[in-house]
Amino acid sequence: LGLAVPVAQVVASGALMREGIMVKDGSAIERMALVDRVLLDKTGSLTLGQPEPDPAVIAALDGDAASVALGLASHSRHPHSRSIEAALLARGLRAVRVEGVAETAGIGLSGSWNGRKVSLGRNDAADVVSTTLRIEGRPDLLIPFTDRLRPDAHAALARMKAMGLEVSLLSGDNAAAVAEVAREVGLFAQAAASPAEKRDAIAALQGQGHKVLMVGDGLNDGPALAAADASIAPGSASDVGRQAADLVFLGDSLNALPRAVLAARRTMRVVRQNFALAIGYNVLAVPLAIMGYVNPMIEAAAMSGSSLVVVANSLRLVRAAK
After folding, report:
1. pTM across the whole model
2. What residues act catalytically?
3. Which of 129, 166, 201, 312 has the most CB atoms in a 10 Å sphere around its CB?
């Protein structure tokens, strides 16, 4: 009985690790096996999270605007900030000193430069995925982005549907950008969701009796990852995302999601088998021992044998994540 759960969890965790999925909490496997709803963040989760700013717009930024953008972007690990930083560094630019830089989840970065308020953050009004650079006293500058779906995204979503999981998008990006991706993958979507709204959406589903798996990568996904019944983040996620998630997948492929759920379901099936084997053994063997029909040598051998049976059954999970 004592081996029934931990041995199965250890073997399953090893199987998942070989597939590039790290289990941070053994109890997450049990919770993952029960999920029936999956909520996907868009940027960095459904997509690769490597958005590229429009080269023409980056090239057109004047020296001050480019240096301020670089000074702000260098303070964040958000995919948009990192790609802006990389693109501007490639131009050979140097960042100016921006004072009092603060990052607000779901909003962006803000600070001051030469006594002017400056910010780099989301733009809900645009029809494309974009970031807006604002410098007090100057017109706003829109920086559009493009991002690609993760490899195997369509196959992974189809596999999850076949497993009985209902999948939808829950993103903080603007409605137009989310709608475009939602149409491409055929999912229902909620856009422009703040961190609190993501958490509330999960609570609403839980209130309806659903077990929710949250998939997210950003600073604004932390509350949702913590509130979900189970959660998973890509290895490229922010520190907050990786810390809040139960599992972390290290590769680019979205197939990590159905693999994790399938491995969890197989693990709990083996755990139930282990309990049945252990309880069945004790129901048969203990009365015989009490009545004196089994001598101590046979009892010792039978006890070891029952443990080996549980371990051997758990070792079937070596390929649980395939």
Report:
1. 0.75
2. 41
3. 129
